């Protein structure tokens, strides 16, 4: 009887638990390394709360910092931060499973389920190969970005520009928003077309999601080489179309909104020429997709621009990529559901395709969970760390969306405030992913059906 009880008491396999613990262990290990005197530029021990904050913002690819990355950390400390960014950006699960492959361990069903849930794919065929391709693809893109941007940094920083180029390329692709070039992010490169475009390209490529890469690249390769039969090439279905459409629409909307609202603002776009204003507005729109770099003062933004920025940060990037937020597809499903209801349709549709009820409910759950965390974090932060409400709100949304932009509020956080933002960044990174895994779990069965009864709304 005791054996039977133990079997029933044993917790079922949970991808959510593995992911949460993986991020947590990575953060704690990173914090311990960053506390070492060798990690700081001055050779002194960094306070645990600041080391923990930096490790969290690195693994969660956020970018909010309590100590300057370019001046506080030594080369070793910056290298640790870069590794943490890479691990967090490409997902802890990917590196864990690939490490098992290198060590010769057999990848079983549980590990494949982890990868399937982490990258939101419908099949378990070729998952390990896909993980290898993701890592290889990311390293290639980051290397190309570094090669393109490093010569520009060498002109300004000499030999140190090589490290700045590598760090910047990885941070941009992983949507981390941390840099080692100075205290004002990329403000010095506000008018530099090359730096802006390369950085924007890295951010966008990291944010659209790896499955979209795979489908588009295979279709392009087959179009010019005909290596694969047409039937074997993935169809550019609803998901890739949605990701590309939403990415383009949000970038255009953000650019137009920032340009219009900040056009005459003397603290942001006002003093710039029209070409510089357009470039700065575009970069601001790109970085709001959870990147965290900036070329114009975030503290100088008008309140209307701050609110629009918060909306874009909350939406974030696309699934299975390096960006955070509730994701573009989640936002689109919610908007499509509302429009379908206004049209008195009994189902959600987009691009002449019907969206399943389970997908709609999952999108609603992700939105509500993220909104609840944002609201609770904001209430606690304003209670334990008083300050400007708009600055606090901007800080919390930036943390939950793993963006990294701040209106200068991060440096004024007390210990309690830092802990609130740490928890918010952590939940923002694993929350939507974990909820998606939770509702995709096969162990939840609809075994009970209740009587239906109408309930008035509106």
Could you walk me through the main structural features you see in this protein, from its secondary elements to its overall organization?
This protein is mainly alpha-helical and 458 residues long. The chain contains 18 helices and two strands. The chain has a two-stranded antiparallel ribbon with strand order 1-2. Helix 9 runs parallel beside helix 10, helix 15 crosses helix 16 and helix 16 packs across helix 17. It is globular and about 65 Å long. The N and C termini lie far apart (54 Å).
Question: Summary?
Answer:
It contains 18 helices and 2 strands. With 458 residues, the chain is mostly helical. A two-stranded antiparallel ribbon has the order 1-2.
Key structural traits:
single chain, 458 residues, mainly alpha, two-stranded antiparallel ribbon, 18 helices, disordered N terminus
What is the count of structural domains? 1
Mean pLDDT: 83
Which residues sit in consecutive blocks of at least 5 with pLDDT less than 50?
Answer: 1-13, 441-445
Biggest sheet strand line-up:
1-2
Amino-to-carboxy terminus distance: 54 Å
Q: Please state the overall shape, judged from the principal axes of the Cα atoms.
A: globular
Biggest sheet statistics: 2 strands, antiparallel
Quickly give the structural class.
Answer: mainly alpha
Separate helix tally: 18
E-strand count: 2
Estimate percent helicity.
55-70%
Q: Report strand %.
A: under 5%
């Amino acid at each position: 009887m005791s054996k039977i009880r133990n079997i029933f008491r044993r917790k079922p396999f949970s991808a959510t638990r593995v992911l949460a613990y993986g991020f947590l262990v990575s953060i704690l290990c990173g914090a311990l390394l960053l506390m070492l005197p060798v990690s700081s530029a001055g050779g002194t021990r960094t306070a645990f709360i600041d080391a923990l904050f930096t490790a969290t913002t690195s693994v969660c690819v956020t970018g909010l910092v309590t100590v300057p990355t370019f001046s506080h950390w030594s080369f070793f400390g910056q290298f640790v931060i870069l590794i943490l960014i890479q691990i967090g950006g490409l997902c802890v699960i990917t590196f864990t499973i690939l490490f098992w492959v290198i060590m010769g361990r057999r990848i079983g069903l549980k590990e494949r389920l982890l990868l399937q849930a982490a990258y939101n794919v419908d099949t378990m065929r070729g998952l390990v190969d896909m993980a290898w391709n993701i890592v290889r693809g990311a390293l290639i893109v980051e290397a190309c970005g570094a090669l393109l941007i490093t010569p520009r940094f060498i002109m300004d920083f000499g030999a140190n520009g090589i490290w700045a180029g590598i760090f910047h390329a990885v941070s941009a692709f992983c949507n981390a928003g941390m840099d080692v070039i100075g205290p004002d992010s990329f403000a010095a490169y506000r008018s530099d077309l090359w730096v802006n475009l390369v950085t924007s390209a890295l951010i966008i490529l990291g944010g659209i999601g790896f499955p979209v890469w795979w489908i588009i690249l295979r279709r392009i390769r087959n179009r010019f080489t005909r290596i694969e039969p047409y039937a074997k090439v993935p169809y550019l279905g609803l998901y890739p179309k949605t990701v590309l459409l939403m990415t383009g629409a949000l970038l255009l909307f953000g650019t137009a909104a920032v340009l219009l609202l900040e056009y005459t603002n003397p603290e942001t776009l006002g003093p710039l020429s029209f070409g510089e204003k357009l470039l700065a507005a575009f970069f601001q729109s790109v970085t709001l997709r959870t990147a965290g770099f900036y070329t114009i003062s975030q503290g100088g933004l008008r309140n209307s621009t701050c609110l629009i920025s918060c909306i874009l940060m909350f939406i974030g990037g696309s699934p299975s990529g390096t960006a955070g937020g509730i994701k573009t597809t989640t936002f689109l499903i919610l908007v499509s559901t509302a429009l379908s209801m206004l049209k008195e349709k009994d189902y959600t549709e987009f691009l002449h395709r019907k969206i399943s009820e389970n997908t709609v409910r999952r999108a609603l759950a992700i939105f509500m969970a993220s909104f609840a965390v944002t609201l609770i974090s904001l209430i606690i932060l304003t209670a334990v760390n008083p300050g400007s409400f708009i600055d606090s709100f901007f800080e919390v949304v930036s943390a939950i969306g793993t963006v990294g932009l701040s209106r200068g509020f991060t440096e004024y956080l007390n210990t309690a405030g830092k802990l609130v933002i740490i928890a918010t960044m952590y939940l923002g990174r694993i929350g939507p992913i974990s909820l998606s895994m939770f509702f995709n779990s096969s162990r939840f069965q609809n075994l009970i059906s209740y009587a239906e009864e109408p309930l008035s709304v509106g």
